[in-house]
Structures are given as C-alpha cells and as structure tokens.
Amino acid sequence: MGVQIPVVRPRRLRTTPAVRRLVAETRLHPAELILPLFVREGITSPVPISSMPGIVQHTRDTLRKAAVEAAEAGLGGLMLFGIPAVQDAVGSEGTNPEGILQQAIRDVVAEVGDQLVIMSDLCLDEYTDHGHCGVLAEDGSVDNDATLVRYAEMAVVQADAGVHMVGPSGMMDGQIAVVREALDQAGHQDVAVLAYTAKYASAFFGPFREAVGSSLRGDRRSYQQDPANAREALRELELDLAEGADLVMVKPAMAYLDILRQVADVSPVPVAAYQVSGEYAMVEAAAANGWIDRERAIMETLTSIRRAGADQVLTYWAVEAARMLRG
Ligand code: PBG
C-alpha cells in the first residue's frame, strides 16, 4: 500500500447523470424563451434568410402557423418584426395602422394571445430607406428628439393593434419615458415596455440586416453602445428604470455575458438577453461544417446566458430548444 492521499473529490458530484441533474444550478424552461419572428408584406410564400439557415421571412399566414407552433412548444412569448413593402425617410409604414407589423400583431394576438406574450420591435430601421433606427437631421445624423416623436406614434399604433409588450430597440435617449407616456395617454396603461437597455454596436447583428431587408450603409455607433464599455450599461439601466421600463434587456448575449451579470446583479426588474442573428449564424455555420455538435452547442449557449443572469432569452432556436428540453 502506498501513502494515503487525502483528496477532496468534487468529481463525486459529476459521476452520474442523476447526480449531475440533482446538483445543476441552472435549468432551462420553455416558458422563459422568446421567439423572434419576421413577417414580410407582399409575399405569397416564406422567403428563406440565407445567412440564418432555417429562419424565414413569413407571410401573414405562415406567421400564424409559426405562432401556433410556438404556443404548442410552451414558449413564453414572441417578438415580432415587420418588413414593409415600401420604405421611406421617416419610416411611414411603422405608424400605418394597416402596416404589416400591425396586421401581424392582430393576427397573432387573435390566434395565440391567450397563451403567449406578444411583443413587437419598436424601431424605425425596418421602415426607413436609409436603414437607420431613427429619422435623420439635415446633416445626416440621427435626430434623437425627432425620432422620439415617431417612437411615441409607433407605440400607440402597435398597442392599438393589441400587442402586450413593446420593445423599443433604437437606443435613443429618453425613448422609454416617451413610449410610456404615449401609451398611458392613449389608455394603454397595461401594455408593458421591454427596454433594450444595453444594446451594443455589434457585428453580430449582421444577418439581421438581410432578415429585414435593411439598406443601412455605415453603422450605428452614434447611438448603440461601444463594445469597450461596461459602465454606460449601468447608466442606461438606471435611466430606463427611472423612465418606467418593465423589463430590461442586454444585447447581444454571448459576447456580453459580463454586462448581463452586472445588470442582473442590480436590476429590480426581470432581465432579458437577446441571442442575436450572428450568434445563431455562427453556431449553424460551424455545425453545418461538422465542426461542433449543434444541439449541445445550442443548449450550452442558452444555459450560459441563463447562468450569467438572464431571466428570459430571445433566441431563434426557441422552439427547437423547448422541444429538446421536453425530450
Ligand atoms: C433594431 C433591431 C436590430 C436587432 C433587433 N432589433 C438590429 C440593429 O440594431 O442593428 C438585431 C437582432 C438580431 O441581430 O438578431 N430594429
């Protein structure tokens, strides 16, 4: 017999699937997953988004079917994005009561509004011909306060269509206050605001541009946050809370898990994270090449986002992940 080595053995808690299941600190549940969906005006069949394999721009009809599927999978909610047939300088279709997003909201609320929280993107980039999230000043810069006027109108039009929660995603200063005030004045006190609180000027939004047919040239660095900075995320959190945000969000997710953790540590309201188009595309591309195990990678990313502090996760894999969770 050799010497007795007094080894402390953390591995005991990793030995069997049963013990690993018993001690897991983070669990995923379909109810906390939110599926982003794209609906496009003027198409008769779904249009695949090449940079997001498996994801399409829906017709109104296939959108309804996707919504039913999401409800059956037990998801928590849907985030709807509209793609209008016509774009212009001020994004007129965003405030047209008969615009594609408003029609889609009415369709989906009628279909699954009792089972899912229906949310809508509140931003102008899908609707403007220059592709910016706001209206432009004479000098070509994004005019913060003129944009707020448009956001207020959008909020009311979306709420009139029946949406449960609006998601202002343009990173304009004061957007939550203005949206809240407009909703309240229009009698929509019960419509909640999911604030895109810490949204970074990210390369990981790349595939989304194709998804919504955006014509953006240039970038969004004058309104979205610098990836180098963490403090301003906490400042944005303070402001959004003071302005009445019901939920706050960090976006993208995976490259910003530290931000997510910092926000989650101090937020008195639920914290969502958006696993964006580029995060989806990266895993799909690597998996298509046989370089990673697709399903394990999906579940690992979602688990890590939850572990970092997200209460809800917006993910294009929501339905598939929910099915995997149910086994
Ligand atoms: C703005 C908006 C964007 C995304 C969600 N809302 C694009 C942007 O800010 O550039 C990105 C979502 C994704 O990449 O999956 N309307």
Task: Describe the protein.
- It is a single chain.
- The mean pLDDT is 97.
- The chain has a domain at 28-249: TIM Barrel (Alpha-Beta Barrel), CATH 3.20.20.70.
- The longest helix has 17 residues, at 144-160.
- 38% of the residues lie in helices and 15% in strands.
- The protein has eleven helices and ten strands.
- It has helices spanning 17-23, 60-72, 100-112, 144-160, 175-185, 206-211, 231-242, 257-266, 277-288, 294-307, 318-326, and strands spanning 33-40, 47-48, 56-58, 77-83, 117-122, 165-168, 192-199, 247-251, 271-274, 312-314.
- It has 327 residues and is of the alpha/beta class.
- The protein is globular.
- Ligand PBG binds next to loops.
Q: Give the CATH level 1 class of the domain at 28-249.
A: Alpha Beta
Fill in the CATH topology of the domain at 28-249.
TIM Barrel
Q: Could you tell me the mean pLDDT? A: 97
Sheet/helix structural class: alpha/beta
Poorly predicted ranges? none
- Strand order within the widest beta sheet: 1-4-5-6-7-8-9-10
Q: What small molecules does this complex bind?
A: ligand PBG
CATH superfamily of the domain at 28-249: Aldolase class I
- CATH architecture classification of the domain at 28-249: Alpha-Beta Barrel
Written as H for each helix and E for each strand, in order along the chain, the element string is HEEEHEHEHEHEHHEHEHHEH
Number of strands: 10
- What gyration radius follows from the Cα positions, in whole Å? 21 Å
Largest sheet: number of strands, sense, barrel closure:
8 strands, parallel, barrel
Q: Can you give the helix content as a percent range? A: 25-40%
β content, as a range?
15-25%
How far apart the termini lie comes to 47 Å
Describe the global form: globular
Compute the number of helices: 11
